[in-house]
């Protein structure tokens, strides 16, 4: 840790913040629609397409966006990750300028599982003749049928990842005295150069 | 006489198990055939709903009539003991069916109700097929969600 004082820096650009909160809302709403929503899943489909567009945007932003949004900035090597994890229980803010190495792994994991969910949903044919994914006929009926199972698995994974995400935010807030939510709203984060 | 009695008794004791397994195999095969028949009729309606098949009132009604006729068959009686997905690799019927026979019956009754309304619902133009199909498909989904193995 450097001894420099923490500075308030604008790390999250507006597009990234809007993308984050839209994604959070849409994923929660669509998860609930999938589990408890009407049998005719038209809205679930449309929100799924919206989530797909957000994912596409986030991946593009990961290459052309501002530095804190770029994959090349935040994806850690194994050594950086291990070093960070060793100190993770210290009761002090990370003051990390952007995604810390553990958070970066979670970003990638969440993007992957949401991608998995979108793709399996597009391919799924649950044999009810109304909620047939637009790619179901292209992948064949066997795969389309299996995709329904993958989609159910994905829903469970998403639930786990969302709960982990919230647990991590609480852990940083209560144990490390670092508020990760406000920076995602305002864009400004207390940062220490390292 | 005694010999005959013993023979009958031993035969009746020995037969049930293989007969039971045969019952389950037959029931599973019959169920799959039943579902295939439903799927053929549903496929006609969904083809018309999507515009892949040209709408024809008589054909739509014939498909709906077949669904209604099929729905009057007592399908739950084919879900015999030993024919769940745990008992037989060919079966997609979740064991939950046998733990919730009443709800399972109610879900099938829901399909029967939807199918009974279908012949009238699919008449009067291609625009009506969608809503009719959604009611029918909703009944499929209602039951599949809880009682069909997702794989």
Describe the structure.
The complex is a heterodimer of chains A (194) and B (151). Chain A has a single domain, classed as Transmembrane di-heme cytochromes, Chain C (Fumarate Reductase Cytochrome B subunit, Up-down Bundle). The model of chain A has no long low-confidence stretch (mean pLDDT 93). Chain A is elongated, with a radius of gyration of 19 Å. In chain A, α2 crosses α5. A two-stranded antiparallel sheet of chain A has the order 1-2. By secondary structure, chain A is mainly α. Helices cover 65% and strands 4% of the residues of chain A. Chain A has eight helices and two strands, in the order βααααααααβ. Chain B is mainly α. In chain B, α2 runs antiparallel to α3 and α5 packs antiparallel against α6. At the A-B interface, α7 of A face α2 and α6 of B. Chain A: Belongs to the HupC/HyaC/HydC family. Chain A: It is a multi-pass membrane protein. Chain A: Its main location: membrane. Chain A: This is Cytochrome b/b6 domain-containing protein.
């Amino acid at each position: 840790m450097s001894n420099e004082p923490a500075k308030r820096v604008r790390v999250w650009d507006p597009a990234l913040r809007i993308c984050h909160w839209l994604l959070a809302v849409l994923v929660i709403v669509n998860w609930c629609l999938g589990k408890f929503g009407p049998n005719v899943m038209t809205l679930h489909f449309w929100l799924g397409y919206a989530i797909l567009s957000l994912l596409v945007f986030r991946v593009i932003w990961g290459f052309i966006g501002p530095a804190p949004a770029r994959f090349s900035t935040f994806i850690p090597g194994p050594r950086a990750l291990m070093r960070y994890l060793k100190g993770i229980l210290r009761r002090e803010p990370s003051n990390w300028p952007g995604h810390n190495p553990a958070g970066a792994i979670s970003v990638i994991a969440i993007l992957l599982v949401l991608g998995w969910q979108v793709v399996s949903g597009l391919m799924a044919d649950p044999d009810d003749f109304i909620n047939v994914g637009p790619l179901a006929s292209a992948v064949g009926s066997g795969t389309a049928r299996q995709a329904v199972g993958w989609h159910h698995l994905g829903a469970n994974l998403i639930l786990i990842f969302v709960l982990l995400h919230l647990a991590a935010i609480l852990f940083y807030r209560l144990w490390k005295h670092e508020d990760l939510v406000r920076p995602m709203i305002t864009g400004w984060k207390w940062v220490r150069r390292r | 006489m005694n010999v005959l009695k013993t023979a009958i008794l031993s035969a009746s004791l020995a037969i049930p198990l293989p007969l039971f397994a045969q019952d389950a195999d037959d029931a599973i095969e019959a169920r799959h055939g039943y579902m295939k028949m439903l799927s053929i009729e549903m496929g006609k309606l969904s083809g018309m709903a999507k515009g892949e098949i040209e709408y024809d009132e008589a054909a739509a009604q014939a498909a709906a009539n077949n669904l209604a006729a099929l729905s009057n068959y007592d399908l739950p009686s084919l879900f015999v003991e030993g024919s769940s997905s745990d008992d037989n690799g060919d079966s997609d019927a979740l064991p939950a069916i046998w733990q919730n026979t009443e709800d399972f019956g109610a879900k099938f009754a829901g399909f029967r109700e939807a199918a009974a309304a279908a012949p009238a619902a699919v008449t009067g133009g291609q625009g009506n097929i969608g809503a009719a199909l959604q009611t029918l498909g909703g009944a499929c989904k209602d039951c599949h969600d809880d009682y069909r193995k997702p794989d």
